[in-house]
Amino acid sequence: ISKQESRLYMSFLHVAFISLFIGGLMGLLQTLVRSGTITLPWGIDYYQVLTVHGVILGLVLTTYFIIGFQFSLMGKTVGMSDKQRKVAWLGFWVMLVGTVMTAITILLGKASVLYTFYAPLKAHPAFYMGLALVIIGSWIAGVVNFRQLYVWKKKHPGEKSPLLAFMVTINMLMWIIASIGVAVAVLVQFIPWSLGYAETINVLVSRTLFWYFGHPLVYFWLLPAYMAWYAIIPKIIGGKLFSDSLARMAFILLLFFSIPVGFHHQLTEPGIDPTWKFIQVVLTFMVVIPSLMTAFSIFATFEVTGRRKGFGSLFGWFRHLPWKDVRFLAPVIGMLAFIPGGAGGIINASHQMNAVVHNTIWVTGHFHLTVATTVILTFFGITYWLVPHLTGRTLTKSINRLGIIQSIIWTVGMTIMSGAMHIQGLLGGPRRSSYSEYGGTEQATEWIGYQMAQAVGGSILFIGILLMVYIFVKLSFFTPKGEEEYPIAEEEDDAEPTPKFLENWKLWIAITIALILFAYTIPFVDIIQNSPPGSPPFDWPIGNN
Ligand code: HAS
To answer: ipTM value of the model?
Structure first.
């Protein structure tokens, strides 16, 4: 990899790890405030801290890590020209200017609107403008990725594209199609409203546009983890890719079904016809299928590799796995966390059960298992080889050992914190609330113990964050010079050829758009037609209504 390329990829990772530190600190503060252990000084508001935590970790850390990692995958598999690199830098700077604008607005206390930022909460216009820039910067990155694949295909007519490049393209396609929703909300609703050009805002439209984006957002986080599970972990365990076609098919299904499902976040919301909620719940259950395919293929890879190495008994293959290699251990803990995390998601998506858990801290428990364990531990697992590979250093034995300790700390902290959140949620504990005794009600006293447990888990996790930031700095600047492998698994020698139709991009995009139109057109028209007077979707300039 050239110096210029690694500088680009590492810049994204630097922003990601600075975010990890800041966002993690805010997380610690939150659990301490919620448990009544501390009160925030200098008039800092709980929701300000919660917004920094959610925006910095949920939106900034993830997006930068993903785009940096994906660029490296594209560079490795299909190459990156000088011109593409320059445009990629443009994307980076546009994103960075947007991120700084957003961060300053939140830190000044002018945008305590949480990471979901839908109306009626209102922020300073600079917050929305910053977000718009982050989105535009990420689109530039996506377009560079598409161009990279296109140029490669021109040079290799008739050949199938490398699997990882195919996967990156799917993820960026999904991201761009999904973020159009939030971009429309930001440009057409929020900016005019926060600038004072519109007096009111249509809350349901803003929430619907947000969740049209918000659900695929979680798959935008998950898919890079799946890239590592499908195509990198097999190489780390000394095996081969289980099935190129199955992996591609799973990604195509995720593209289809990630977007037309936003209503499962709005099941309790009035103003949306229950029939359409039902239809989107059915589509949500469809999006579970590619994850089950992924689970199946990972188990199969582990077993096939173990048996090939001569571990023949029923579960003997389990022992061959490189448990002491942190590049394997961290992502595998992530996979294991996805078993309860995914099951929790299925509970959330089930209309009746959603009524029990919605807006309780159970939901917070769910996403700390999914994004903050499954995804993040996989990203950490990637960091252990990607960073030294890019900086021309090595993953030393002692850093490997520290990494194992880090993974264990994370597992313990998260089990305590997320477990307590799930239970407190079932007992009715609300999410997104600061410390309160709720007038000494009996039910609220039941929650206190669980909130203390969350503070204990949160403190352990913060130690894990400090350790991870230390490891990142070591791998970036201090471990001995050398060459670290970029592990990409090969296909089995006797693999069936991947069918050509899997690369029919036009067809996949057309089906995706058709599904979105099917799931959203009628309910959206309904929402607009049934909006109460005075809240047209886009009521600006003032006086137009
Ligand atoms: Fe979710 C709320 C439904 C997956 C993140 N989710 C959230 C929120 C976030 C989030 C951030 O239907 C909160 C949003 C907010 O602030 O309001 N979620 C689902 C469903 C899935 C799901 C059906 N969520 C995720 C993922 C996330 C994520 C992934 C982040 C990365 N979620 C919901 C719903 C809500 C929700 C409702 C709204 C709740 C409400 O009322 O507000 C599915 O995608 C899950 C499918 C997954 C599986 C698991 C497969 C298992 C695998 C691992 C295999 C492991 C192996 C280990 C093989 C079925 C792939 C082998 C190891 C060895 C050692 C042998």
So the answer is: 0.95
